[in-house]
Amino acid sequence: MTPESPGLVIGIALLVVSLLVLLGAFLWAVRQLAHERQASRELRRLYAFGRELLEARLDIDAMCRLVEEYCQEIVPAAAFALVLREPSGAVYCPLASHSGQPLSLREADAAAALALVEQNGEAVLLPGEHEPPTPLPLAIADATASGLYVPIYANDALLGVIALQSDQVGAFTREHLADVTALASQAALGLQAAALLRQQQQRTAQLMLIAEVGRKVAAILDLQTLFHDTVHLVQETFGYYHVSIYRLSDNNKTLILTASSDAEIEHRGLTVPLGVGLIGHAAQEGRIHLANDVLHNDLYLHEASLDRTRAELAIPLRVENRILGVLDLQSDRAQAFTDDDASVLQVLADQIAVAIEDSHLYMLQRQQSRISEALLQVANVLSSATSLSESMAAVVDLTPRLVEVTWCLAVVWPDDERRPILHTTGLPTEVGAEISRELARRSREQITACWGSQKHLVVEAPDDMAALSSVLAEHTPFVVIPLAARENVVGYLLAGAERAEALSGQAANLLADIARQASLAIDSALLHQQILRQQQFEQEMHLARDIQLSFMPESLPDLPGWDIAVEWKAARGVGGDFYDLIPLDENRLGIVIADVSDKGVAAALYMALSRTVMRSTALEGYSAARTLQRTNTLLLPESRSGMFVTMFYAILDLRSGLLRYARAGHNPPLLLRASTLDIETLCSPGIVLGVVDDPEIEQRTTMLYPGDVLLLYTDGVTEATSPDGDEFGVEGLENTLRQSAGLSAEQVIRATVQAQAAFVEGSEQADDFTLLVVRRQPIVQDTATGAM
User: Fold this and answer.
1) What's the half-sphere exposure (Cβ side, CA atoms, 13 Å) at 257?
2) How far, in Å, are 281, 301, 328 from residue 275 at the CA level?
3) What pLDDT was estimated at residue 273?
4) 758 or 487, which is more confident?
5) Which residues sit opposite 166 in a β-bridge?
6) Can you say how many angstroms the Cα of residue 683 is from the centroid of all Cα atoms in its chain?
7) Which residues is 242 bridged to in the sheet?
8) What pLDDT digit, counting tens, does each position of 84-94 carry?
9) In terms of Cα–Cα distance, which of 552, 554, 559 is closest to 576?
10) Per-residue pLDDT averaged across 440-467, rounded?
C-alpha cells in the first residue's frame, strides 16, 4: 500500500457517506411529495364528492350510490352496506352490495352494524391490530375476514353507518378509516336532508292514500261489507301485518271484533272488555294508544295467533263525542309507528267512523235514503275539491239543494290566518256581501265567543250576536253548527229557513252530517298543510340552524369610545341575512352587512359561503372596494344556483372615526349627525355580488364624529308591511333614528324594533331582518370645570 492509500480510502469513505446522506434526503423528499400528492388527491375527492352530493338534489338513492362509489375508490371491498336510522328509531338499509351486485341485508344484521359503532362511539376496524379473527356483524357470503365500520353523525346524532367488509385479512387500514370518516362527515347533512325529504314525501303519499281509502270506504253502504272491506283495504294500502275493527257493544261495556284481516281470527271472534288492553283503553278514553314495543308494554294483550306482533296502534273510531269502536293496527316490526303516523291515521279512523255511522243509519233508517244520498254527494264534492276554499264553496252551494233551507253560510279560519274563508248562498247579493264584510271585520275570538262550540238554533238573535252582524241578526231563524278540526272549532256552518221547524228533526240531522263531512275535509286540509310546513321547517332547521349560528359573531367587540348593538331575525328560523365585525388590527374594524337573494335553507347555505369568503378576503388587508371585488371573484364560480348577495363593507378607523366604505347593491346605511340631527345616506355605486365578472365598485369616505350614529340594515326592516299593505320604508327608519338621537346603540335598536312592530300590527315577518348600529360615544364634558 502506498503512503497515499489511507488518505484515498478516507476520501472514498467520505464520498460514500455524502452520497448516502444525499440519497436519504432525496428519498425523504420523494416521500414528502408523495404524501402531499396523496393529501391533494383526498381533498379533490372530497370536493368532487360534495359537488356530486349537491347535484343529487336530495335523491337518497343517488346519494347512497355516490357514497358506495367513493368508498370503493378509497378502498375496494367485496361487500358494502349503508345502514340508516329513521326518526322513529327503526333501522333500514337503502343500499347493500357484494362484488358490485345488489343484495338484500337482514334487518338484524343492519341493526348489529349500527349497534357496533354506537357502542364504541367511533369508527371500528375488525379485527383490530394483533387480534385474532373476529365475527363480523354482516354475514355476506365470503366477505367476513375483515371489516371497516364508520359512523355517520348529523348534529351529534348517529344517523347511520358505512360498512365495508373483505374476504382478505387486514384489508383495511387506519388511513382507509380516516378517509372514509371524512367522506361520512361530508355525506351526513345530505343524507339527513334526503331522509327528511323522503319522510315528507312518504307523509304526503300517506295522506293521498288516506284520501283514496276514505273515498272507497265512503262508497260502501252495507255495514258488514264496510267492516270487512275496510280492514283488507287498509292492510293492502298500508302494508300492516294485521288490521282489525272492534265495535262497541250495545251495553257499552265490551268491544266485539267485527272484522279482521286474518280470516281465522275473524271467524273465531274476540271480545275485549272496556278499559282492558290497548284496544279497551283507546275506546274508554277516546284517544290513541300506541305501543312501539309490545314486549315491554303493560297494556298489551298477547294473542297466540298474532305472536309476530311487535308494535300496536289502537285508534278510537269516533263521531263527534261518541265512540263507535276501535281501529287496531299491528306490525311485525318494533318502532313501526311514529306520533305523526298516529295523528294522520286518526283522520283515516275518523273517516271510517263516519262511514260506519252513515252505514248504520242507512241500514236502520232506509226511509232516510235522501240523507245518505245527500251525504254521498257532499263527500264526492269535497273529494274533488282542490282547495279548502273550493270545498267550503261547494258545501255552501250544495246544502240548500239537499236540505230544505233558504240560505247557507260557511266561515272557516285556516290555522291562524287573519281573514277567514267566507262563502254564502241563497241570500240577495248585497245582503250576503254585507254579512261577509261585517264578519270579516270581527276577530276569530269575537265570533267563537258569541257562537260557541255546540250546535244551536237561533230563533231571535241576542244582542251580542246582533253586534257581530246586524244584517245576519235580521235573517232568523237559523241554525249554527261548529266545524271542528283537531278538537278545535275552526269555523261554522249556518243555515236559515222561513220557519224554525224546517231546521229541526231530519233536516237538523242532515245539516249536522254535512257539517261533519265539512269538518273532516277541513281537518284533512289543515293537517296536510301543517305536516308540510312542519316537515319543511324541521328540515331547514336541522340543516341550517347550526351553520347559521356558527357563522354569526359570538359576541360584539368592546371598543373604547364606541358603542355597537345588533338585532338579527330570520323569517324562517334561518335565512340569508348576515353581519360581521372583523378586527383588522388594533385600530381598524371591518363592518359587514349582507343579504342573500332568498330565504330559508338555500339562503343560509349561500350566506355561509359568502360570509366565509368575505371574512377571509377582508383579513387580507384590501381596501373596502377591492375587498368586495375580490369577494365577487371568489363567489362567481359558486353561483350556479342563480343566487346572489348584496353587501356593504366599511373599514372604521377607531382612533379618528374615519370610515372608508363600499356598497355592492345593498341598502345604503343611514348616518345620523349628532350636531344637526341631519341624516346622510352612505350611497356609493356598486352592483350585487355573484352575478357579473369584475363589477365596478366605488369606495367613498366619511367621518364619524362623537355622538354620530351609523345604522346598517337589510330590506326586511324597510319592506315590512302593515295590514293595509303599506311599507315601513326608509322614511319610517329615518324618523325612528332621528327620534333616537342621544340614545345608546342598544336603545336605538330597541326603538327601531318597537316602531316597526307597531307599524305592522302583528303581521307575520315575511323577510329576514337585520339591524346593526355603530355609535361613536360623545365626549363627556365636566360640568364643574368645563373640561372635555
Assistant:
1) 18
2) 4, 12, 15
3) 92
4) 758
5) 146
6) 38
7) 330
8) 987 767 788 88
9) 552
10) 87
For residues 136 and 104, the answer to whether their CB atoms sit within 8 Å is no
More confident of the two residues 108 and 730 = 730
Tell which residue, 97, 105, 117, 90, has the closest CA to residue 202: 90
Cell of 457: 238554533
Please say if the pLDDT value at position 1 is more than 70. Answer: no
Residue 655 is given by DSSP the state T
Which three three-digit cell numbers place residue 736? 325612528
| Burial of 167 (C-beta count, 10 Å sphere; 0-12/13-18/19+) | middle
Handedness of CA 518, 514, 231, 386 (dihedral sign): negative
Alpha carbon distance 734, 757 (integer Å):
16
In 219-316, where does DSSP find H-type helix? 223-238, 263-268, 277-285
Contact 766, 720 (CB under 8 A): yes
169 close to 145: Cβ distance less than 8 angstroms: yes
Instruction: Find residue 713's DSSP bridge partners.
Output: 771
pLDDT tens digit sequence for 241-266: 899 999 888 788 899 998 899 988 88
Distance between CA 319 and CA 250 in Å, rounded?
Answer: 16
Place of cell 312518504: 202
Among 281, 287, 237, 279, CA closest to 261? 237
- For the chain, the farthest-separated pair of C-alpha atoms sits apart, in whole angstroms, at 144
- pTM reported for the whole predicted model: 0.38
CA nearest neighbour of 572 among 594, 530, 604: 604
Contact 194, 522 (CB under 8 A): no
Q: Mapping DSSP to helix (H, G, I), strand (E, B) and coil, where does residue 133 land?
A: coil
Half-sphere exposure of 156 (CA within 13 A, CB side): 1
**What value does the mean pLDDT of the chain take?**
83
Confidence class of residue 529 from pLDDT cuts 50, 70 and 90? confident
Q: Are 135 and 155 contacting, i.e. CB atoms less than 8 angstroms apart?
A: no
- Is the separation of the CB atoms in 145 and 171 below 8 Å? yes
| Ramachandran sector of residue 238 (left: φ over 0; alpha: ψ -120 to 50; beta: rest) | alpha
In the beta sheet, which residues pair with residue 518? none
If DSSP codes are grouped into helix, strand and coil, which group holds residue 458?
A: strand
Mean pLDDT value of segment 422-430: 88
How do residues 694-706 score in pLDDT, each as one tens digit? 889 999 999 999 9
Q: Would you tell me how many other CB atoms lie within 10 Å of the CB of residue 221?
A: 16
Task: State which amino acid sits at residue 595.
Answer: D
pLDDT-derived band of residue 367, with 50, 70 and 90 as boundaries? Answer: very low
* DSSP code per residue over 707-771: T-EEEEE-HHHHS-B-TTS-B-HHHHHHHHHHHTTTS-HHHHHHHHHHHHHHHHTTPPP-S-EEE
Per-residue pLDDT at 572 exceeds 80: no
Phi-psi region of 786 (alpha: psi -120 to 50; beta: other; left: phi over 0): left
Round to whole Å and give the CA distance between 4 and 412: 115
* Residues present in the chain in total: 788
C-alpha of 206 from chain center = 18
Q: What distances in angstroms separate CA 52 from CA 71, 164, 639, one per listed residue?
A: 14, 21, 16
- Amino acid occupying residue 735: N
Q: Which of 257, 215, 259 is nearest to 237 (CA)?
A: 215
Residues 6+ apart with CB under 8 A from 1: none
* pLDDT value of position 627: 93
Q: Phi and psi (nearest 5°) for 612?
A: -65, -45
Q: Of 786 and 523, which is predicted with more confidence?
A: 523
